[in-house]
Specification:
The protein is of the alpha/beta class and 330 residues long. It is 31% helix and 15% strand. It starts with 6 loop residues before the first strand and ends in a 6-residue tail after the last helix.
């Protein structure tokens, strides 16, 4: 770590900055963010104006360009972070084995081998270890280890790390072999936070809330009237398995990127009102601070939240790595 005791991070597949905020909360300094989505980059810039961003396709980002942008040399970086797009692996989607997004982890590994950071942290969906996707999981693990790292992977749930959302994710942590330190994961840190507690005193945009309430002519409205807290739309219509009316006394289910249409059967229903969630409510359930800014249309903002790593989740992982690994390096 540097003289100011800030560990350094390069974030790939950065999205709107959920991971970056987690590192910042753990006293890390993100030297560079890598992202190609226009709305995600715009959102990132609003919240991290001091961080350099490579706005483009990671396939075109060379190791030499990273060194040029950050001023670091091979082996100096503390943490290489990355959440390669997971839609091809996700249990919420079709889980197509040949989805081209399944191969983006190779770009992360390419940068890992060139930068040679002390540690890497990679996040992905639980679907990666299920069914035929296990073949890709084994390949990823083999390639990470052959890159010169001791690697441990664990299925973790964000609800035990001060995030009011049940979100299971695979967390890969690797430590460079020459450092002779075994990677470990943080133990659970909190009891699950309920939706009721998370949404207490939330301030909503009333125009947005009114728009979301205006669903009486929607095809889903009759079913919403019947749904009880914790029930899924699929119980009544055999579809929309992740379309659930929130139970105020439990954490929210996983927020996915596809909930935006007032008539669609995706996402969550407010526990007390017959509507979907506002962006400010979604921010609370994903552990973003109220002051975090999102931009674009409702569906754009929702997609950023649904795709991101909850900041408090990454904060817990980053603090563990900082205290349990980085501070042991001589």
């Amino acid at each position: 770590m540097n003289s100011q005791n800030n560990f350094t991070v390069i974030s790939t597949f950065s999205g709107c900055g959920g991971s970056s905020l987690g590192y910042k909360l753990a006293d890390g300094k993100v030297l560079l963010a890598v992202e190609m989505d226009n709305n995600a980059v715009q959102t990132y810039k609003l919240n991290f104006p001091e961080t350099k961003i490579y706005h483009g396709d990671i396939h075109n980002l060379t190791v030499e360009k990273v060194f040029e942008l950050t001023g670091i040399k091979e082996g100096e970086l503390d943490i290489l972070d990355g959440s390669p797009p997971c839609q091809g692996f996700s249990t919420a989607g079709k889980r197509e084995f040949c989805d081209p997004r399944n191969q983006l982890y190779n770009e992360y590994i390419r940068l890992l081998r060139g930068l040679k950071p002390k540690i890497f942290i990679m996040e992905n969906v639980s679907g990666l270890v299920k069914s035929k996707m296990k073949l890709i999981f084994k390949d990823i693990l083999t390639e990470l280890k052959s890159s010169g790292y001791k690697v441990k992977v664990r299925l973790m749930n964000a609800k035990y790390y001060n995030v009011p959302q049940s979100r299971q994710r695979l967390i890969f942590i690797g430590v460079r072999n020459d450092l002779k330190i075994d990677p470990t994961h943080p133990k659970p840190q909190s009891k699950p936070i309920t939706v009721k507690k998370a949404l207490t005193n939330v301030k909503n945009d009333e125009k947005e809330r009114a728009w979301l309430l205006d669903i009486k002519n929607s095809s889903i409205y009759p079913t919403l009237l019947r749904m009880k807290p914790g029930e899924s739309y699929a119980k009544y219509k055999k579809q929309g398995f992740n379309f659930i009316k929130l139970d105020p006394n439990k954490p929210a289910p996983t927020l996915t990127r596809t909930m935006w249409s007032k008539a669609s059967t995706n996402g969550q229903i407010h526990p007390y009102e017959l509507r979907k969630l506002t962006i400010n409510e979604a921010k609370r359930l994903a552990s973003y601070p109220d002051e975090f800014k999102f931009t674009g249309k409702y569906e754009d903002q929702w997609a950023r939240i649904g795709n991101s790593v909850p900041p408090n989740f990454m904060k817990a992982i980053a603090e563990h790595v900082k205290n349990g690994i980085l501070e042991k390096i001589v």
